[in-house]
Design brief:
Largest sheet: none
Radius of gyration: 19 Å
Shape: elongated
Oligomer: single chain
Helix content: over 70%
Order of helices and strands: HHHHHHHHHHH
CATH topology of one domain: Tetracycline Repressor, domain 2
CATH class of one domain: Mainly Alpha
Distance between the termini: 52 Å
Amino acid sequence: MISKKQLVGYAVDKFIQFGSKHITMDELASLLGISKRSIYKHFTSKEDLVVESIHELIAKFTHDINPILEEETSVFQKMVKIYDKAFDYLIRFQPTFVVGLKKYYPKAYEVYNRFTEDFVFITLLNELKQAQKEGLIRVEIDLHLFCLLYLHELDKRMVAIHSIIDKYSKEVLLEHMIINSLRGIAVNANF
């Protein structure tokens, strides 16, 4: 018998790879070599499984970035490392993943969207505000506006033009989407 944790882990991988809408419960059960009824012992609906999968994905990402947030380095170095990790996740997403969440699984999309908004407008904004207090970011910069323009929904923009991920390396994307934006607000652009 498969555990709930194993089921969620497998579902996350398949949903990212094919999009949550494109993997049916029958297919998931078949791929796992279990009955569909075994899945429904853990989840009352596919949306419940998708929601739990999003929570698992968020937990993995949070686990990956928390050590970066704890580092004693500049906010600029932290943000580059964080987005390096974030881009690793986004590169694995099929374009239908986020779009499918919004269209077919509104509860799961709300969980995903709430996390991304909190991450940008609480976690990263607080890091940027601290850097501004420390004199690393120009005082005239409206950091909330910076987050809104450059960091908010960056994941959705990248997924919407998925070919950008295929056309450009992660390093080039980091340079153009994150590093150059940070240089624009830094007191010293040589970070």
